[in-house]
Amino acid sequence: MEEAFRRSGLSACGGAFLSARRRSDAAETTEKWFARGIRILLRENLKAPAASVDRLPAVFFAKGDKAILDQPLAATLHSRVNRAVCPGDPWISATKAALAYAGEKGLAVVSSYGNVPYSVVCTLALAGPLVVVCPEVLPFMASVTRPEIAAFLEDLSHSGRILFLSAYSPGRVSDLNTRRIERDRLIAGISTVLLAGEIRKNGNMERILSEAKARGTKTVHFSGEGETLANSPAHGEPDKSGRIVTIRPVAKRKFEHAAPELEQLAKGSRYLIHYTRACPGPWPGQKILDYCRSLVHGDRDSTHTAFDTLMRIIEERRVRGGARLTRGNCPVVSFTECVPREVRDLTEWRPALVRWSFEPYGVAFPLQSLFRMGARPVIYAVEAAYQDLSEELRHLFQLQSPSGRTWAPEKEWRIKGDLEISDSLGREMVIIVRTLDEARKVEECCGFRTALAGL
Question: What CATH number should be reported for the domain whose range is 36-228?
Answer without folding.
Answer: 3.40.50.450
